[in-house]
Amino acid sequence: MALSGGHKDRGELRIHESLDELKTDLADYIAEISEASVKERGVFAIALSGGSLIGLMGKLCEAPYNKTVDWSKWYIFWADERVVAKNHADSNYKLAKDGLLSKVPIVPSHVHSINDSMSAEEAADDYEFVIRQLVKSRVVNVSDISDCPKFDLILLGLGPDGHVASMFPNHSALNEREEWVTFITDSPKPPPERITFTLPVINSASNVAVVVTGDSKAEAVHLAIDDVGPESSLIPARMVQPAKGKLVWFLDKPAASKLEASNLSSK
Ligand SMILES: O=C1O[C@H](COP(=O)(O)O)[C@@H](O)[C@H](O)[C@H]1O
């Protein structure tokens, strides 16, 4: 690792020299949380995002992880999804299926994707209902400080505008406090119709990792992590603040290039 650091409530920073190094660290991190969750609860409930994240998780399909991870205990969810058919190029489910899920022995019935035959509003309600049933059976843990689900791990990407999951700057979805899953029909990034976990759900997870690469995201990373005054408070990624869970940022050097040096220490 090139550099590591931390920033009060902004979590742990892991800054990598190369994408290869980042991918290995990310695979190790996911495998460790999977092992700990299976040991503690008998299952591992993980929520994925779309975008570049899936490619960065690619080492999980290779040795040793493909053989050492207990895939039969994995339950898969999506922190956000585009409301398109599952075989559509924009589908986060398709991205994960093609890039990860079809390459490891996940139990098909443990894969909980949205119902793609519904409107965005119906799909969000339906997805929340599915998660509620799995909280009742404790496949998904429950938060001890709210009625929210407590996912073992939520993996997020970051857009250059600071969006996480499908929560975009200045969007009313950021204010949702009652629903676990909400919908939007006006995403500034296509496609417009999406469902997304809400902030209370993200911030109730045991572990949240934000995985960011490339210099186009350096400014968003800076605003999400450094103390830069009121302008940064509107950045959705800055609102990711797990109440009792652990937040880790996986960054490559270009994505971390605008971070203030005072937050960093070399390893
Ligand atoms: O639209 C989306 O974008 C973000 C970021 O994607 P990336 O390709 O820039 O990493 C992603 O995390 C989210 O799941 C997706 O729906």
Automatic annotation (TrEMBL):
One of its GO terms (biological process) is pentose-phosphate shunt. Belongs to the glucosamine/galactosamine-6-phosphate isomerase family. 6-phosphogluconolactonase subfamily. The keyword Hydrolase applies. It comes from Senna tora. It catalyses: 6-phospho-D-glucono-1,5-lactone + H2O = 6-phospho-D-gluconate + H(+). Residues 19-249 form the Glucosamine/galactosamine-6-phosphate isomerase domain. This is Probable 6-phosphogluconolactonase. Signal peptide: none annotated. NCBIfam families: pgl. Pathway: Carbohydrate degradation; pentose phosphate pathway; D-ribulose 5-phosphate from D-glucose 6-phosphate (oxidative stage): step 2/3. Its EC number is 3.1.1.31. Keywords: Hydrolase. It holds the Pfam family Glucosamine_iso. The keyword Hydrolase applies. SUPFAM superfamilies: NagB/RpiA/CoA transferase-like.
